[in-house]
Amino acid sequence: MEDMQWDNQTSITSFILLGFQNLHKFQILLFLLFLAIYIVTIVGNVLIVILVVTDQCLHTPMYFFLANLSFLEAFYSSVITPKTLANCVTENRTISFGECITQLFLYVSLGTTECFLLAIMAFDRYLAICKPLLYNIIMNFKLCLQLATLSWFSGFCLSAISVGSVSRLYFCGPNKMDQFVCDMEELIKLSCKKSKLTEMTVFLSSTIVTLSPFLFIIISYAYIISAVLSISSSVGRQKTFSTCVSHITVVSLYYGTIIILYVIPKTGQTPEFHKGLSVIYTVVTPMLNPIVYSLRNKDVKQAFKKLVLINLGVA
Question: What's the count of helices (H) and strands (E) in the chain, helices before strands?
Fold first, then answer.
């Protein structure tokens, strides 16, 4: 009888993304801000990829993984920002069920892949600092390609499990989502028929894809710090550890927002605060990554100068 009651109700075929409705007076300003961030994100990350591909000095494992990360960030931002921009300048904030699930799958997959890539980049730094004599032998191009491919493949496959589970939920109303992007947690809240199996699947998959790489990064840097501290020269310690600063900054930005969003209890957190953190996680961080690597890295800056001089016909 209960199943018949659910079947008799109309199934929801679209959702309304409320976005930043409390900032209605500032929609044009928000549009311009998000547009500027999006342009900087795409230009910065695409430029990193171009530099790594074209400059022989950057044909190393560290920059190979950086190029993967930059390509991912450009893709990730393109999944999130265009819809957010459209919602800032239109009253129609509807997104179909199919579009919602597609967006959710893509950004969860890319976020998962980023977790794995950051862990691999930590492993690369571990080998370079702790096993310098074996580094070039172990971290050859074939292994780099295999690790990058595994990251992308695992990211999309693991995300398919959790997103696929959510996509099978039943939605009969309400259909208003207090977010600017299709969110896993919001979809579960809106489902008419709660599923403990779905909630458990999402929880386990989210835990695995975030905590496992994070713990791997922590362990890698524990060994790195131990190796750096064993260097007698302070200049040597500083020079060695400086190769890790950009990666540590990116990891801190990425996992810092994840921990606040999904690990720390939400008691006292307003929806606006939660959306603000989501903006940092999904919109701002992809813009900051190429900036961090450009400002802290002499090789990237030198490659950029060389590219500019070549295009100006000077070199």
Answer: 12, 3
Helix, coil or strand: residue 291: helix
pTM: 0.89
- Determine how many CB atoms are found less than 10 A away from the CB of residue 230: 9
CB 296 within 8 A of CB 246: yes
Q: End-to-end alpha-carbon separation of the chain, Å? A: 78
- With DSSP H G I counted as helix, E B as strand and the rest as coil, what are the percentages for the chain, rounded to 5? 80, 5, 15
* Sequence letter at residue 221: Y
b/e string for 83-122 if b means 16 or more Cβ within 10 A?
bbbebbeeeebebebeebbbbbbbbbbbbbbbbbbbbbbb
- CA dist list (Å): 73 to 38, 48, 61, 184, 256: 11, 11, 18, 20, 17
Q: Tens digits of per-residue pLDDT, 157-214?
A: 999 999 999 988 888 878 888 888 898 888 888 888 778 888 888 888 888 888 899 9
What backbone phi and psi angles, to 5 degrees, belong to 289? -55, -50
- Encode pLDDT of 31-84 as tens digits: 999 999 999 999 999 999 999 999 888 899 999 999 999 999 999 999 999 999
Q: Name the residue type at position 58.
A: L
> Quick check: helix, strand or coil at residue 9?
coil
d(CA 28, CA 87): 11
Q: Distance (Å, rounded) from C-alpha 147 to C-alpha 120?
A: 7
- To the nearest 10 degrees (0 to 180), the angle between helices 234-258 and 285-295 is 170
Contact 189, 127 (CB under 8 A): no
State yes or no: cis peptide before 132, omega within 30 of 0: no
Q: 178 — phi, psi (to 5°)?
A: -80, 65
Whole-number Å distance between alpha carbons of 179 and 186: 8
Cα–Cα distances in Å, from 135 out to 129, 197, 243?
A: 9, 44, 15
